[in-house]
Specification:
This protein is of the alpha/beta class. The chain has 21 helices and 33 strands. The protein has three domains: 210 residues, Enolpyruvate transferase domain (UDP-n-acetylglucosamine1-carboxyvinyl-transferase, Chain); 221 residues, Enolpyruvate transferase domain (UDP-n-acetylglucosamine1-carboxyvinyl-transferase, Chain, Alpha-beta prism), CATH 3.65.10; 214 residues, P-loop containing nucleotide triphosphate hydrolases (Rossmann fold, 3-Layer(aba) Sandwich). The protein binds adenosine-5'-triphosphate and ligand LCLUPRNS.
């Protein structure tokens, strides 16, 4: 997951390959609650691991439910059988509507003292209609902040004091989660038939279908009269199905379906974990994508997508049945042959953010003309000349972030900056990493930092890579490991052994794991950092065959979203086309002092004078060798950091990097 302040996506040109999607959030959180309320143990496979499921799991633990995390994405839930072990708890539910709404209903009926709160946005998301419905039953719930919104306090009520004989009326036109919450919770008290009447036109019906489907898996068969009346039969009891598999998230599939529809070439994009037969309503995104021209095939638990019509065909769609996935259509609409309108999407306004406002504002930043109203959005296509490189605000809304990643696919070849990319953790923590496995870009960005020993290249490069979310290549470590392997083989790091050393370098069993350097599984991170190892590295690095042997390995570090590489010849030989090359220097006295401090802090005793002599000897060898000598690239920016702190050096390089980017500071 990217925890950086922003993530820059270079322009995409093609997409192909296979992605496996994480489990559905809607199914995961419903299954967790049902498993917790049920009798027996439920093993849940392919559970989504995300912010929203984590708050649900934490809440269940706080309520005394046994939660065992087994392998990977499998969780075992020991059901409470409708009886609370802990009738008092304070639950923080983040921004997870799929936890807040159903838990409010279930805990109101279970009899206990509870406080439910969330992040500030959760306290702006309405819950009054659900609280009103529960109050009709006799539940006692207080608002701790604004009436109609969390946080809430739930007071215990004896089952005998609940009024179950009259139909419970609940509004269906604000959020279908209110009805879902009642359907999931009312079997707890079904000593008689309990009827729910929906007031107003029920929105997002497919989500109710998921609820009914999963209730049936847990032994509750709800009788339905159209979409207006639902009856939970007397004597309903939750029974664990034993094992249950969570389908991959159909809403998450929408980004990859769109990608397949947008990708010009490169073959088809295969999506695994969800197929057209899915129980999730958002799978009907396929119909909308096909309507726009996408070529979509499906089989059991898979989808395959390729570009069909181009430009895409504009649509005018009542998107009430696919509220989440429909956001993806708004970005696809930029490539359509006319304006596209998404209607009946008022629920967008009460989601993680006001999604109509958010989508309109960010699409406009890309240069698009957008019209919007209380329950619709109309997006006009964007001509190549009108696209702008935008910094996309994500409003702590995972779907805004994921949708706008698709804007990196544009005819103008412009990058997109996604601000606060970590918001995808709500439902798809590895979204960007997954995206990077299937997209093709003309150029993966590289920043080169070259310079003499102890100038601070490594420190600077690691920090810059961290700020940008880029990969890091410490090319010196490759020569250092080669030097170590040379010694271990009983060879001298000299020209006489050039061929043998090059053969060693070619097949180094090297791994970089969590900042450690492993040689054949052994952690050699400290062994390669001694001054003697540095000297050996310098010697082997002067051998042309060794440099050639390490060339391909270094180039393989260039992966999305970008690379910061440090060494001696990053800008001159390995990545000569890099947009930013920095040649970092500091006075010999400063460098010797820094290295001295560094070694002392590691418990290695040495003297300043010997260190200075060593580093000057190393600089001389590195600069005078015949192949790839240490020297600034012609277009390198020089930075003498003798008088700069590490933070100042990092800031300078990041500023230079920003200067190479087309983003306006809007
Ligand atoms: N601008 C700076 N101001 C003060 N100290 C710094 C600065 N940059 C780096 N240092 C310190 O100098 C020491 C050497 O830095 P670093 O290991 O990053 O250098 P290097 O150029 O990568 O060395 P080598 O080429 O030998 O691997 C570290 O202890 C680091 O914290
Ligand atoms: N791109 C590179 C990186 C390193 N070397 C050589 C020369 C150095 O003295 C030695 C150790 O590098 P360090 O870890 O100090 O950065 O490796 C090189 O020739 N080319």
């Amino acid at each position: 997951m990217f925890s950086t302040a922003f993530l820059d996506l270079p322009p995409f040109v093609a997409a192909a390959g296979t992605v496996r999607l994480p489990g559905s959030k809607s199914i995961s959180n419903r299954v967790l609650l049902l498993a917790a309320l049920a009798e027996g143990t439920t093993t849940v496979h392919d559970l989504l691991d995300s912010d929203d499921t984590r708050v649900m799991l934490d809440a269940l633990r706080a309520l005394g439910c046994g939660v065992e995390l087994t392998t990977g994405s499998t969780v075992r839930i020991h059901g409470l059988n409708g009886q609370l072990h802990t009738p008092q708890a304070t639950l923080f539910l983040g921004n997870a509507g799929t936890a807040m709404r159903p838990l409010t209903a279930a805990l109101s009926l279970l009899g206990g003292d509870f406080e439910l709160s969330g992040v500030p946005r959760m306290h702006e998301r309405p819950i009054g209609d659900l609280v009103d419905a529960l109050t009709q039953l006799g539940c006692q719930i207080d608002y701790l902040g604004n009436p109609g919104y969390p946080p809430l306090r739930i007071h215990p009520v004896a089952p005998a004091h609940l009024t179950l004989d009259a139909p419970i009326r609940v509004r269906g036109d604000v959020s279908s989660q209110f009805l879902t919450a009642l359907l999931l919770a009312l079997p707890l008290v079904a000593v008689r038939d309990i009827t729910i009447d929906v007031v107003g036109e029920l929105i997002s019906k497919p989500y109710i279908e998921i609820t009914l489907n999963l209730l049936a898996r847990f032994g509750i068969v709800v009788q339905r009269d159209g979409w207006q009346r639902f009856t939970i039969p007397a004597g309903s009891r939750y029974r664990s199905p034993g094992e249950i598999h969570v389908e991959a998230d159909a809403s998450s599939a929408s980004y990859f379906i769109a990608l397949g529809a947008l990708a010009a070439s490169g073959g088809a994009l295969r999506i695994e974990g969800v197929g057209a037969e899915s129980i999730q309503g958002d799978i009907r995104f396929i119909e909308a994508a096909r309507q726009m021209g996408a070529h979509v095939e499906s089989g059991p638990n898979w989808l395959q997508v390729a570009r069909g019509a181009w430009p895409l065909k504009a649509i005018d769609l009542d998107a009430n049945h696919i509220p989440d996935a429909a956001m993806t259509l708004a970005v696809m609409a930029l490539h359509a042959d006319g304006p596209s309108t998404l209607r009946n999407i008022a629920s967008w306004r009460v989601k993680e953010t006001d999604r109509i406002d958010a989508m309109a504002a960010e699409l406009r930043k890309l240069g698009a003309m957008v019209e919007d109203g209380p329950d619709f959005i109309r997006v006009h296509p964007l001509a190549a000349a009108d696209w702008r490189a935008a910094r996309i605000k994500t409003y702590d809304d995972h779907r805004v972030a994921m949708c706008f990643s698709l804007a990196a696919f544009n005819p103008a070849g412009l990058p997109v900056r996604i601000l606060d990319p970590h918001c995808v953790a709500k439902t798809f923590p590895d979204y960007f990493e997954t995206l990077f496995t299937v997209i093709d870009v003309p150029e993966v960005p590289v920043i080169c930092i070259d310079g003499p020993t102890a100038s601070g290249k490594g420190t600077l490069a690691v920090e810059v890579a961290h700020e940008l979310g880029y990969h890091y290549l410490d090319s010196g470590s490759l020569y250092r490991v080669t030097g170590l392997a040379t010694r271990r083989k009983g060879l001298e790091p000299e020209p006489a052994y050039e061929a043998e050393i090059a053969a060693l370098a070619e097949t180094l069993p090297l791994q970089f794991v969590k900042g450690k350097v492993l040689l054949d599984g052994e952690d050699v991170s400290d062994a390669i950092r001694t001054e003697a190892a540095g000297m050996d590295a310098s010697r082997v690095s002067a051998l042309p065959a060794v440099r050639a042997a390490l060339l391909a390995l270094q180039k393989r570090f260039r992966r999305l979203p970008g690379l910061v590489a440090d060494g001696r010849d990053m800008g001159t030989v390995i990545f000569p086309e890099a947009r930013l090359k920095v040649f970092l220097t500091a006075s010999a006295a400063q460098r010797a002092e820094r290295r001295h401090k560094q070694l002392i802090s590691k418990g290695i005793s040495t003297t300043l004078d010997s260190l200075r002599a060593d580093l000057e000897a190393r600089d001389a060898r590195d600069s005078s060798r015949s192949v790839a000598p240490l020297k600034p690239a012609q277009d390198a920016r020089r930075l003498d950091n003798s008088q700069l702190s590490i933070a100042q050096s990092v800031e300078q390089v990041l500023n230079w990097w920003q200067e190479t980017q087309p983003f306006k500071s809007s």
